[in-house]
């Protein structure tokens, strides 16, 4: 079983197989970097589980938009398997843009990937003739390992209210609507601010930040839709706006959930949210106290060619199926002056989201990570 996981995880494959996703076979190629962990969790999304915090926030956003005079169609069952065209080209992400990188995305093959944002569906829905809609779904990104990053999370996209071209009302409408949403979620007295941003698919683009625990936290991106996006969506005679937001971000801030792994602990979610009624703004999540400090392991190795930090996190996540790792820090990068070889040193902190873990509880995970790295051609130091 482990052997299979390690082999499938190999970075440099000499031959490719087929990946089976939702019962369908997909051909693998040089771009494939799905891990068994991700494949096993494909479709294990949270936005449709009753009283899951992600579902609660989703419903609150729906509720807000349901009160408006425009009606918004809702889409939340679109497949997370999308084309490169949908995820990037359709929303004008340049061919060489860093966001297309293999290090940040889960590619099925060179044509398909697991959507990295729900914006992947904008054009497809516009083409179907939708004009104002909310699109919610699970999204997948390769990233760091800490208490606020998980390779699968949830986004909400939309709506785009389409006006006749030339209308000046559109920016006011965007600001008024999204300020209303922020107040609906965080209360009338929320401290928030507008920031200028850049997205390839909107111009101008903005972000809203809310003040949280002494700091400004970005919670939503938005802007006036680029004309080319509307052209791609066969709505070239219109102008409109769009927004996108991460539901975990909102839920963490609103319910005081300090560790993103908790969204995946169904027993806790059940226990704390099951009988959830009343004002969601009054509700606070209670994180059990974990008395034990995290167990720490350092691991240094010579990296194989083309190796990226995110490859280490994927190897670790693939083995750590119970989410015992709280965070990982890359503490040292060093290139040998003579051999030119580069070494990375990672410090892994083990502590469950619900309970402390001791050295003996996690030693086997650390050994398995070492073995997997060796399989990849990494020379342990
Ligand atoms: N897709 C963006 C992201 O994942 C969020 C976003 C920003 C969506 C602006 C939008 C938008 O529709 O207009 O970061």
Automatic annotation (TrEMBL):
Main localization, broad class: mitochondrion
Q: Which InterPro entries match?
A: aa-tRNA-synth_II, aa-tRNA-synth_II/BPL/LPL, Fdx_antiC-bd, Fdx_antiC-bd_sf, Phenylalanyl-tRNA_Synthase
Q: What keywords does the record list, in alphabetical order?
A: Aminoacyl-tRNA synthetase, ATP-binding, Ligase, Mitochondrion, Nucleotide-binding, Protein biosynthesis, Transit peptide
Give its E.C. classification number. 6.1.1.20
Q: Where in the cell is it found?
A: Mitochondrion matrix
Reactions it catalyzes: tRNA(Phe) + L-phenylalanine + ATP = L-phenylalanyl-tRNA(Phe) + AMP + diphosphate + H(+)
Q: Which residues form the Aminoacyl-transfer RNA synthetases class-II family profile domain?
A: 57-288
Coiled-coil region(s) at which residues?
none
Q: What top-level branch of life does the organism fall under? A: Eukaryota
Tell me, what's a Pfam family for it?
Answer: FDX-ACB
Q: Which SMART domains match?
A: FDX-ACB (SM00896)
Task: Outline the extent of the FDX-ACB domain.
Answer: 290-381
Report the CDD domains cross-referenced here: PheRS_alpha_core (cd00496)
Q: What class of enzyme is it?
A: ligase
Concerning its family, UniProt says: Belongs to the class-II aminoacyl-tRNA synthetase family.
Specify the protein name.
Answer: phenylalanine--tRNA ligase
Q: Which organism is it from?
A: Oikopleura dioica
């Amino acid at each position: 079983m482990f052997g299979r996981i390690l082999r499938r995880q190999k970075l440099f494959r000499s031959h490719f197989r087929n990946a089976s996703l939702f019962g369908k076979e997909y051909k693998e190629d040089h771009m494939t970097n799905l891990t068994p962990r991700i494949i096993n969790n494909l479709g294990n999304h949270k936005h449709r589980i009753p009283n899951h915090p992600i579902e609660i926030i989703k419903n609150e956003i729906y509720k807000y938009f349901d009160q408006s005079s425009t009606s918004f169609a809702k889409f939340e069952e679109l497949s997370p398997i999308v084309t490169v065209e949908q995820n990037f080209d359709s929303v004008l992400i340049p061919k060489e843009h860093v966001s297309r990188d293999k290090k940040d995305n889960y590619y099925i093959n060179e044509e398909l990937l697991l959507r990295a944002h729900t914006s992947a569906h904008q054009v497809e829905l516009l083409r179907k003739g939708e004009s104002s809609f909310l699109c919610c779904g699970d999204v997948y990104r390769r990233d760091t390992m800490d208490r606020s990053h998980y390779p699968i999370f949830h986004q909400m996209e939309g709506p785009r209210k389409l006006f006749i071209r030339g209308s000046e009302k559109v920016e006011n409408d965007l600001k008024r609507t999204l300020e209303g949403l922020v107040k609906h979620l965080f209360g009338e007295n929320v401290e928030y601010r507008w920031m200028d941003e850049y997205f390839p698919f909107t111009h101008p683009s903005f972000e809203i930040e809310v003040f949280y625990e002494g700091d400004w936290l970005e919670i939503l991106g938005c802007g006036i839709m680029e004309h080319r996006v509307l052209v791609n969506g066969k709505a070239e005679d219109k102008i409109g706006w769009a927004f996108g937001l991460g539901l975990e971000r909102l839920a963490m801030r609103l319910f005081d959930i300090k560790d993103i792994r908790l969204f995946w602990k169904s027993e806790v979610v059940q226990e704390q949210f099951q009988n959830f009624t009343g004002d969601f703004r009054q509700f606070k999540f209670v994180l059990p106290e974990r008395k034990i400090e995290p167990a720490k392991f350092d691991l240094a190795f010579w990296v194989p060619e083309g190796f990226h930090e995110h490859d280490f996190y994927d190897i670790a996540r693939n083995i750590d199926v119970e989410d015992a790792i709280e965070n990982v820090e890359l503490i040292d990068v060093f290139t040998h002056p003579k051999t030119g070889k580069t070494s990375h040193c990672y410090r892994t902190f083990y502590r469950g989201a619900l309970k402390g873990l001791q050295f003996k509880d996690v030693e086997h995970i650390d050994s398995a990570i070492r073995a997997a790295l060796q399989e990849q051609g990494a020379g342990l130091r």
